[in-house]
Amino acid sequence: MNEAQIDLAHTVALGLIDDEDHHAIHTIIDTEDPTLCTEFLRELRGTREALAVLGSSTPAPPPPSLRTRLLTAILAEEPPVAS
């Protein structure tokens, strides 16, 4: 499976497919290469499982020092120069 097909599996798992994606999905699913179809479905299933775990996790509060570190980093940046 190539990177575009992996990206497509992730897009499907996120529910963000469009008409062009539908065509690409059918091309993979209807292929005569059973390995490609199996790999695509495995990637799709794995991504959905990872999203389910992520969605059910309890967020941890950020460390108290994070706000100070972020503000310090922002203030240290040079302001954008108008062109």
Task: Write up this protein.
The longest helix is centred in the middle third of the chain and has 23 residues, at 34-56. The chain has helices at 3-14, 19-29, 34-56, 65-76. It is built from four helices and no strands. The chain has a domain at 3-57. The termini are far apart. Helix 1 packs across helix 2 and helix 1 (3-14) packs across helix 3 (34-56). With 83 residues, it is mainly alpha-helical. This is Anti-sigma-K factor RskA N-terminal domain-containing protein. It comes from Nocardia rhizosphaerihabitans. Keywords: Transcription, Transcription regulation.
Distance between the termini: 45 Å
Query: What is the alpha-carbon Rg in Å?
Result: 21 Å
Strand tally is: 0
Can you summarize the main beta sheet?
none
Percentage of residues in helical conformation = 55-70%
